[in-house]
Design brief:
The complex is a heterotrimer of chains A (336), B (138) and C (541). By secondary structure, chain A is mainly α. Chain A contains 14 helices and two strands, in the order ααααββαααααααααα. With 541 residues, chain C is mainly alpha-helical. Chain C folds into two domains: 168 residues, no CATH class; 310 residues, no CATH class. The termini of chain C are far apart. Classes of the chains: A mainly alpha (336), B mainly alpha (138), C mainly alpha (541). Chains in contact: A-B, A-C. Chains A and C meet through helix 2, strand 1, strand 2, helix 9 and helix 10 of A and helix 3, helix 4, helix 6, helix 7 and helix 9 of C.
């Protein structure tokens, strides 16, 4: 049901611009929509990050992923359990660039006996890594539509991406990776009973949306060709605040653009904010140096405690009888 | 505000600059003009129309050229007959560039704008216009 | 114990297939053996906690005040403004499922709501509905749902089925820490007076007497004196235990179970033998006689209220620094909360071992050193005369307790000690130790008899790894550094791995420690006969 709903919404997001752009109004589909989307994205993303940033981190609670720093002769795990700023930066870099924690993933199996067996399970890590990096490269490749002249690094990335020179136009490895990874992640959500059970529409929708974006992109490259020079004129116009609407850019492009606009509008209000959130996770972005350096909690309010004086007051008799040292010598008339 | 608020804002600003980098590039550096290609045909007797219609060629010329190349190189088959029965030589230099004789404005303008580097010129030496209007090898 | 009838092989028949029906319509059945008794009203009153009542989770009527939803929402709002963890963790989970089979309760029960992701979603669904636009508009499609009594019951059921062990957080690509979520969930339930007896009674006891069993100062002294006498009998060395004495260098704090419970007690004997042998200038405190902090299972405020005693007592007694015994959640609090909550400890001095001169820079601010750090340093500097053969009757394996493992990274210190005080030491499979260690299944206040089925289920992964070492290496004792472990692993192992004993690191140290002036030792600290070396056996023959 949740999957069907997501599919329906994505279909709608395809149909609307397809019908709309066919009917004309390219200034709306090509200028108003992307500007509005970009504005919502930038404002929404900023608001979300500031919303998190305004909340304090009262306690320093990193998850230790390796040996602590204690005695000099015990080798500490500088990246999995960092105690210094640089170590923490290294840990965050590993986390963000290599998905370190996901790399640890294991799979448990209950066998006869009972015997629990654990196996390394790297598929999710591999697919996630492929997905994110492919997406990044695809995004960077698009810089050739954004600026003129095309920067040399974009040409270089593109050259590498099409290194195998398969097909014409040349197949980009990242296109294949992106679609393959999306298919894996989607397939996993649908076929693995456990993951299906935890999935909301909000989990299928972004995957389907990204799949639709990739598919429309690939279709434009191979099957429904659009006037790319027109596309670039439109994109450069948008991104130099001098919008132009060239004639004759195919409707498929407006579908693609609308889907991308939908994605960036959706991003700040969804789980896709893990893009920013991963930097702000207090179990990862703080050093495990609690006993070395004091962490300050800005709202550390005073609490009601039981003082030693109250304690000695209550237990004076028995403490005295037991010969325990006392701070106050009370006169105890009834004591023998 | 929490003590790391400034750090986070700093990171956020970096992110916002990065995602809007094309905007800043264009606004600060300006953009080169993006001109449409010139068809740049010269009149060649007996060749009054292209081998396919312009719409098709605009989008799919690479497929046609690819097909030509493979047919010539692998099968040695040079003769090409258009759908309306005209005969042509499957040749980039002698057919295409015979009419479209300005590589810079006909081919390169688009290819450069879209960062396409076709491997035509790995073998073919390309063409330029001579003073008398004929095509010359570079 | 309702599960008394269930044999291990029956309990281990676990169905991991999630039900066909989705999880968003709650339907909790408080089945006997899977929940803990509700908090007694007197304990709540003693601690000035809201809405005390006579109540059990299995009751149909939870006696909620009419404005209970408002109380919860206000509580959530307040915590969302106070804890970035809470806010970020509510927002960024992508439900990748990597955490799913990392939870010992999920592995042992197959109940999908024991997957950490769903445990958090129980709270997240209400958060979305109440605090996000998408949730308000889209409802179930984005995983949002209304708070009602059934949802509340579900919270209680599953937030008291999490031991806050943080294993899932090791694998989470965003470091989402379910312990943090569970702590928030329990704090919210506390606002309605919904807590469990085995958290609140120890809390009240700790607050009043300093230890969770409510033992008064003279009882505390009796226990330590008794231990000292027994140790003197075992070793032939006269031993005294200083209590509440001012002017010593070190305050020693350990979980109270060490002097009241078995097998903790043998670890206590180990400490006492060690401290005597090295002539440590230290004192116990009856006021701060509980290192374990049950506040961690209740609320941040309660952590602070109980933990305050340690620094207060260190100041009153005028010690230079503090040494802490073997305990799990105690060390989570000492390592990650104490200094922030009740510091700065600027009235104390940089901890320095009086024997080796080693300065414990890693405790420069908190001024509290873990005993395994202290002892490892002693052994490294050759300050202890050890006879590892006195532990030859033990073939040990080591259980990394959740909190020292995943909150500190205390892995090598105890291993270094064990390898030098005994000859037979074996590791459990690597996916089950160090930062990947499995919980005993009874932490965070869940170690009660009425909750036994859940404990046995939650403890299955740990017990199963122990079984592996028993079967492959002949291990006969599981060593650990946590009072809850020492209390709850024995029944767990008796069920899943019969024949395994449970002990502490310093029990082994005490066995191996050759003391000046000791009599010939023929038993270990448990009074069990030592294995005679092969040579002597031959000689005797």
């Amino acid at each position: 049901m949740t999957f069907g709903f997501s599919l329906f919404v994505v279909a709608l997001l395809i149909a609307i611009p397809a019908l709309g752009a066919a009917a004309g109004g390219h200034a709306f589909w090509g200028v108003v929509i992307p500007y509005a989307a970009l504005a919502i994205f930038l404002a929404g993303f900023t608001a979300r990050i500031l919303g998190w940033a305004r909340v304090p981190v009262p306690f320093r609670i990193p998850t230790a992923g390796g040996q602590q720093k204690s005695l000099d002769w015990i080798k500490s795990s500088r990246l999995d359990n960092p105690h210094s700023a640089w170590g923490t930066i290294g840990r965050m870099a590993l986390e963000i660039l290599c998905f370190r924690s996901l790399f640890r993933n294991t799979r448990v199996e209950l066998r006869e006996g009972p015997k629990l067996a654990y196996g390394s399970s790297k598929w999710l890590w591999a697919a996630a890594l492929a997905f994110h990096y492919a997406f990044l490269v695809v995004f960077l490749r698009h810089f050739k539509y954004f600026v003129e002249p095309t920067p040399a690094w974009v040409t270089a990335i593109q050259g590498l991406d099409g290194f195998f020179q398969v097909g014409l136009p040349v197949l980009y490895v990242t296109d294949a990776l992106l679609l393959g990874a999306v298919a894996f992640l989607l397939g996993r959500r649908l076929l693995d009973a456990r993951v299906r059970y935890i999935s909301h529409a909000a989990d299928y929708f972004p995957l389907l949306l990204i799949a639709a974006i990739a598919v429309t992109g690939v279709l434009m490259r191979y099957f429904f060709k659009v006037d790319l020079l027109g596309v670039k004129q439109l994109a450069v116009g948008l991104l130099s605040l001098q919008p132009v609407v060239p004639e004759g850019v195919g409707a498929m492009f407006f579908v693609h653009l609308f889907l991308v606009s939908s994605l960036i509008v959706y991003l700040p209000f969804s789980k896709l904010m893990h893009l920013g959130g991963v930097f702000l996770s207090p179990t990862r972005n703080l050093p495990n140096d609690n006993r070395m350096r004091r962490h300050v909690n800005p709202w550390n309010y005073p609490v009601k405690v039981h003082t030693y004086e109250e304690y000695e007051e209550e237990f004076h008799e028995v403490m005295k009888a037991a010969g325990l040292p006392l701070d106050k010598e009370k006169s105890c008339p009834k004591a023998s | 505000m929490p003590p790391d608020f400034r750090k986070i804002v700093f990171g956020l600003v970096i992110f916002l600059i990065l995602v809007t980098l094309p905007l800043w590039t264009n606004l600060l550096r300006g953009t080169a003009p993006l001109e449409d290609p010139e068809i740049s045909t010269r009149d060649v007797p007996g060749k009054d129309r292209c081998v396919r219609e312009a719409e098709y060629m605009k989008a799919n010329h690479m497929d046609l050229l690819n097909e030509w190349r493979e047919t010539v190189v692998r099968d040695g088959e040079r003769g090409f007959v258009t759908v309306d029965g005209r005969h042509f030589d499957r040749s980039l230099d002698r057919t295409c560039m015979d009419c479209h004789n300005k590589q810079e404005v006909f081919c390169d303008r688009c290819h450069n704008a879209l960062a396409v580097s076709p491997y035509c010129w790995d073998c073919h030496i390309g063409a330029r216009e001579t003073k008398d209007g004929s095509t010359a090898l570079r | 114990m309702s599960q008394g009838k269930l044999k291990p092989e029956e309990l281990a028949r676990i169905n991991y297939q999630p039900p066909a029906k989705g999880w968003m319509d709650p339907d909790v059945e408080f089945r006997k053996g899977t929940w803990c008794y509700g908090a007694v009203p007197d304990t709540l009153k003693y601690l000035d906690l809201p809405l005390p009542k006579k109540w059990q989770p299995s009751d149909a009527d939870w006696q909620l005040p009419p404005n209970w939803k408002q109380i919860i929402f206000e509580g959530m709002r307040e915590r969302l403004q106070r804890f970035r963890t809470f806010k970020v963790f509510m927002d960024i989970c992508v439900r990748c499922g990597a955490c799913a089979d990392k939870c010992h309760f999920y592995i042992g029960s197959g109940d999908p709501k024991n997957m950490p992701v769903l445990r958090a979603e129980l709270l997240r669904s209400v958060y979305r509905r109440e605090f996000t636009k998408a949730g308000k508009i889209m409802g179930k499609m984005v995983g949002a749902r209304d708070l009602d009594e059934k949802v509340l019951k579900e919270w209680f059921y599953y937030f008291y089925q999490c031991t806050e062990c943080r294993r899932c957080s090791v694998y989470c690509p965003y470091g989402i820490d379910t312990a943090e979520i569970t702590m928030m969930g329990r704090e919210l339930l506390n606002l309605l007076g919904l807590s469990i007896e085995w958290v609140n009674t120890p809390l009240a006891n700790c607050f009043r007497t300093g230890n969770h069993l409510g033992i008064q100062p003279h009882g505390f002294k009796d226990s330590l004196d008794f231990a000292a006498d027994e140790l003197s009998d075992l070793t032939g060395v006269p031993i005294k235990v200083p209590i509440n004495e001012k002017g010593h260098e070190i305050l020693f704090v350990t979980p109270s179970a060490d002097y009241f419970a078995s097998p903790h007690y043998f670890t206590l004997l180990g400490y006492l033998a060690l401290f005597h042998e090295i002539g440590l200038d230290y004192t116990f405190s009856s006021f701060a006689s509980e290192g374990g902090n049950f506040g961690l299972f209740h609320s941040h405020e309660m952590i602070k209220r109980l933990n305050a005693k340690i620094y207060a007592e260190a100041r009153r007694l005028g010690v230079k620094w503090i040494l802490g015994g073997e305990c799990g959640h105690m060390w989570r609090v000492l390592h990650q909360y104490m200094d922030t909550m009740n510091g700065p400890a600027d009235f104390l001095q940089m901890p320095k071992s009086p024997l080796t001169g080693t300065v414990f820079n890693n405790a420069a601010s908190t001024k509290m050193v873990h005993i395994s750090e202290f002892t490892a340093d002693l052994i490294r500097h050759g300050k202890l005369k050890l006879d590892p053969s006195r532990n030859d009757h033990w073939k040990a394996t080591f259980h990394d307790s959740c909190n020292p493992a995943r909150c500190m990274g205390l892995f090598e210190e105890p291993r270094y000690i064990m390898r030098r005080v005994m000859n037979h030491y074996y590791e459990m499979p690597e996916d089950t130790i160090r930062e990947q260690t499995f919980c005993c299944g009874s932490g965070s206040g869940l170690g009660t008899d009425e909750n036994m089925e859940n404990r046995l289920r939650g403890g299955l992964p740990r017990a199963n790894a122990v079984k592996h070492v028993r079967d492959s290496k002949g291990a006969n004792i599981l060593i650990c550094m946590c009072a809850i472990d020492k209390a709850t692993l024995p029944p767990l192992l008796e069920y899943w791995v019969p024949g395994m004993e449970v002990g502490g690191v310093h029990e082994l140290v005490g066995n191996a420690l050759v003391m000046k002036g000791e009599k010939e030792r023929d038993t270990d600290l448990r009074g069990q006969p030592l294995v005679k070396p092969a040579k002597e056996v031959q000689d005797a023959a």
